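ASSEMBLY PREDICTION REQUEST
Request ID: AP-0331
Submitted by: J.K., bench scientist
Number of chains: three
Total residues: 353
Priority: normal
Notes: Please return the full assembly, not individual chains.
Input sequences:
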Amino acid sequence: MEILDIIVFSLMGLGVLFTAIRLIIGPHFSDRVVALDTFNMIVIGVIVVLASVFKSELYLDIAIVYAILAFLETVVFARYLEGNRK
Amino acid sequence: MKYFTTFVALLLVYLLLAGFTVDEVILGSIVSAILTVLLTKYLNFKIDLKFPLRLLKFILIYIPVFIWKLILANFDVARRVLSPKIPVNPGIVKVKTNLKSDLGKLTLANSITLTPGTLSIDVLDEYIYVHTIDVKGSDGLEKEKNISGPFEKILEGVFE
Amino acid sequence: MTIAGYVFMIIGGLFFLLGGLGVLRMPDTFNRIQAGTKATTLGAFSVLIGVGLVNFEWSWIAKIIIIIVFIVISNPIGSSTIAKATYYSKYKPDNLVQDDLEKRGDE
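STATUS: Completed
Returned structure:
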């Protein structure tokens, strides 16, 4: 089963790599926020698969907290991007 | 009734997170009771006797359609991303909705975001403004049918 | 059960890859949001179901249900928030062929 774990991790790692490239080169601030949102979602997937590999339930709690923080982060950055519109 | 529903929902989430043992049930009941007293004045929903029927409709009709549309949307995204020259013809389209409640509008907007080629941007009064990758059809009604068609009817049955 | 779980996990990994590629390749911000949201929602869904099938125990499944419900509710809301903020900010994409939101005050 180890080879299957490696396949799953490499697929997700490529996804993280692509979003990280967009995070660095993104022409505007809004593109970077989008890339960060996608990045966080893929990292949640990585944490859940890690829980399965280590057979440890604690990682699922970490994934829950990370999901909540990722959502808050997205909303806060979007508020900042929107500015003080009347 | 409102207090009871809030209490049950909170206790259910607590037990799903902590596991079913006697200690956890006692502690979870105390915590949920305190939170219910604190939170209920901020909540705004109505519950009546038809609620189980609506929940059943939501689970049996809405969720399968939603998952099917989500899978279709992903194949649409895959086709666009993997084609060498990306075909886009984007635009923002106004869609009228008949749903009155806030929760209904939220669910409709979320469903629109996760269906093929559409992304809801803003909800103002009874209109939802939707960004579509590919603007199809010439007049307004045709576009509305393309975007919110199946969900609008199902959600009217659930939330109205 | 384990095999089915790994199949779901690999499908989910593929959708995550597609989401990353979509965010990289799409031409403007709104299209990037679309590709990113849809692909990662189904990817997370699929990976979580796969992990639930590999570790088929009650406590795992309860937490996985909570994560799935939270992601399916919060991910579209986050994307809509970014889209709205982008629309009203100064970085609005200029390749729209039709814009109903701009003339909203006229009626």
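REVIEWER COMMENTS: Residues 7 and 36 of chain B are 6 Å apart (CA to CA).
SIGN-OFF: pending second reviewer
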